[in-house]
Design a protein that fits this description.
single chain, mainly alpha, two-stranded antiparallel sheet, 20 helices, 75% helix
Length: 537
């Protein structure tokens, strides 16, 4: 049964890339040989013409963190797997792929500028500032959610914590060997992976690094702080590079397990239109699954780094539309770990569900299920830490840009500390779900994180629509319909959250933030409509 499921997803995504991706390419009149920032501004640092295969690897690794794993599992567990896979497939094709590809093209056509800077040009400076605030708030929720999830896993699985700590030290040595000792990439990678594998084998039989969840939260906050202020080559870049091998491993294991494992789908296809912990399917299904269908964070990557490396505009579809579909595939694999488990067998959090599934897939190729489960925990923990350190660093950039703070060690420290205040507050609060029950931070924050992220995506689509109208491109309906859909879902989710919380007297930091987001979103919509009307007049 799972064989047909995953082959159907692969086939549909392949057809979408070939036909709908090509349709978008023709809509924007993308031409071979048109000017690209990587060549016009080539500096060997940020602007570097890059082979399309390497570019895809960079873009995919940047966007595919823990989001396409955690979101689908939460939504599948709450609503059933059929609504989740429908949103993953059609969202990736018609909304996420459009969003990512358009963000890259609009950045290429504006010298590699960020989507926020494009908003400043086509709308006004106020909208540009609001975009920066949106991005910063979204990143704060990312850090809070994934710190909580990671600390929970480390407290429950000491072996995973040990290997993750080893991973960080190996990454530091790896970075030093490459950038200071000038060792070759290939041999250094092989040696690092061998040491990590040895650490996994040792930790499975000798787990000793046992700390409480709260202790791990503070350890990980310190890690996020250091990852933000240290040189990128020293920790962040080598750790993220080595983490990508876990991503490739789990994708391959997932595909092998689903195609050849003869797994039966045991979990219900549909649960309910309303989840007690999340809320109603409409709109919360469409914000719970953010990465894996559409994510505002992708526009930051597409217009922030990828646009500065595209060596040919014709490769934009391959990197971004193709990258979005690959992430959709990761989300489909993550959802399958819910599908193959009976309802009563699911774990208490997404890491447990995902790791149980990976353990089952590993047994198909002769790996002990318990060892496979630990590998699953390690994979998702690697993704989570990648998301945490990258999000903290980008938040520091955004804060410095927002207040026009000059770059220095002191400014990096200040911006990072301020950016970590909201996550620290959230991680030390007793938060309640819609039923009034005290639950882990990630369960409460995930919907508002998803709302913020998806609202950013909706606003990016709004900017893209303004650009399309200004440039007189055809087929603007293909943009305005996804944009209106995302605006409706995100604003409805925010309104629902506000009504429930205020009715229950929960005037906490989440309620205040939701009010701010709602007001800012309405402001951006009004300003964007005004910009379109000026063009039409």
């Amino acid at each position: 049964m799972t064989t047909l499921y995953i082959l159907a997803v692969i086939l549909i995504f392949g057809l979408a890339f070939r036909f709908y991706g090509k349709f978008l390419e023709n809509t924007y009149k993308v031409k071979d040989g048109e000017p690209v920032p990587s060549k016009e501004k080539c500096d060997g640092v940020d602007y570097v013409p890059t082979n399309k295969l390497v570019l895809l690897g960079h873009h995919f690794s940047s966007i595919a963190g823990a989001g396409p794993i955690v979101g689908p599992i939460i939504a599948g567990f709450a609503f059933g797997w059929v609504p989740a896979i429908l949103w993953i497939v059609f969202g990736s094709i018609f909304i996420g792929g459009l969003h990512d590809f358009s963000s890259l093209i609009i950045s290429i056509r504006h010298g590699g500028r960020s989507i926020a800077e494009v908003a400043k040009k086509y709308i006004n400076k106020s909208t540009y500032k609001i975009f920066l605030v949106f991005i910063w708030l979204a990143l704060m929720y990312v850090v809070a959610v994934f710190l909580d999830l990671s600390a929970d896993t480390f407290a429950k699985e000491p072996a995973v914590a040990q290997v993750s700590v080893l991973y960080i030290f190996i990454a530091i040595l790896f970075g030093i060997s490459l950038y200071r000792l000038k060792f070759k990439l290939g041999p250094s990678t092989v040696l690092a992976l061998i040491i990590i594998l040895a650490g996994i084998v040792y930790s499975l039989s000798n787990p000793f690094l046992a700390l409480s969840k709260q202790s791990w939260i503070w350890v990980l906050i310190v890690y996020a702080f250091l990852a933000s202020i240290l040189p990128v080559w020293f920790l962040l870049q080598p750790r993220d590079y080595l983490s990508s091998y876990f991503l490739y491993f789990t994708v391959i294991i997932g595909l092998v397990g689903l195609i050849f494992g003869k797994n039966q789908i045991s979990y219900p296809a549909f649960i309910s239109f309303n989840s007690k912990s999340i809320g109603p399917l409409i709109p919360f299904m469409f914000i719970t699954i953010a990465c894996g269908a559409i994510s505002g964070f992708h526009s930051l990557v597409a217009s922030g780094t990828t646009s500065k490396q595209v060596d040919n505009a014709k490769n934009a579809r391959f990197a971004t539309y193709g990258g979005m579909l690959l992430e959709g595939l990761v989300a489909a694999i993550a959802l399958s770990t819910v599908m193959i488990l009976a309802k009563g067998q699911t774990g208490a959090n997404p890491q447990q569900i995902y790791s149980q599934g990976i353990g089952k897939f590993c047994s198909i190729i002769g790996i002990n299920p318990r060892a496979g489960q630990i590998l699953g925990y390690l994979a998702i923990s690697a993704f989570i830490l990648t998301t945490v350190d990258t999000a903290t660093r980008i938040a520091r950039y955004i804060f410095q840009e927002l207040f026009e703070i000059k770059e220095s060690l002191n400014s990096r420290i200040l911006a990072t500390v301020i950016s970590l205040i909201l996550p620290i507050l959230l991680l030390n609060m007793k938060l309640k779900d819609f039923s009034g029950n005290i639950v882990p931070v990630w369960k409460v924050v995930w919907p508002i994180f998803g709302t913020t992220n998806q609202l950013l995506a909706a606003l990016v689509l709004l900017v893209i629509y303004v650009w399309v109208k200004r440039e007189n491109f055809k087929h603007s309906l293909a943009i305005i319909l996804p944009m209106l859909f995302m605006l409706f879902m995100t604003l409805t989710a925010l309104a629902y959250t506000l009504v429930i919380k205020m009715t229950n007297g929960q005037y906490d930091v989440i309620t205040i933030t939701a009010l701010i987001l709602f007001g800012l979103a309405i402001f951006v919509v009004i300003e964007s409509v005004s910009a379109v009307r000026k063009k039409e007049v």
